[in-house]
């Protein structure tokens, strides 16, 4: 699988992908109010900065976007996969690509993640360990996770 740096013209597709992924899975794990907060709790400026800094990556086939992942500070961020493509390796390969870029550019030996409840197992398969279960500003729960980098 090959990944590209996200481009500013990908921004609307990235946000739409994020929404599709959350709409597919979050209703079975969170209250309707929490789902609404998750759907609307994003910052276009943050995405734009990550794109400008070449810290957000995409997996595309042709012009269709199937996955994204990136990093900010020491945290992996914005790991989204098209719900119709769950289970084919896009997310785990994006995580590995992101970790390699992070380690190469920063030299850090640990990466963190704030993980939505239903994604815990996915992150554990990618080598992350639970540090703590926390509550977000809206009362929804998430896991703080960490992974040592080799």
In short:
The chain is α+β, with helices and mostly antiparallel strands. The protein has five helices and seven strands.
CATH superfamily: Gcn5-related N-acetyltransferase (GNAT)
Give the overall average pLDDT.
92
Tally of separate helices: 5
What is the tally of beta strands?
A: 7
Strand content: 25-35%
CATH names the topology as Aminopeptidase
Approximately how much helix is present in the residues?
A: 25-40%
Computed Rg: 15 Å
Number of domains: 1
* Through-space gap between termini: 21 Å
Do you know the CATH architecture? 3-Layer(aba) Sandwich
Identify the CATH class.
Alpha Beta
**Order of helical and strand elements:** EHHHEEEHEHEE
Which geometry do the CA atoms define?
A: globular
Structural description of this entry:
The strands form two sheets. A four-stranded antiparallel β-sheet has the order 1-2-3-4, with helices on both faces. The protein has a three-stranded antiparallel β-sheet with strand order 5-7-6. It has helices at residues 11-25, 32-40, 44-52, 90-106, 120-125, and strands at 4-5, 56-61, 64-72, 75-81, 110-116, 129-135, 141-148. The longest helix is centred in the middle third of the chain and has 17 residues, at 90-106. It has one domain: Gcn5-related N-acetyltransferase (GNAT) (Aminopeptidase). The protein is α+β, with helices and mostly antiparallel strands and 150 residues long. Strand 3 (64-72) and strand 4 (75-81) form a beta hairpin. The model has no long low-confidence stretch (mean pLDDT 92). The radius of gyration is 15 Å and the shape is globular. The chain contains five helices and seven strands, in the order βαααβββαβαββ.
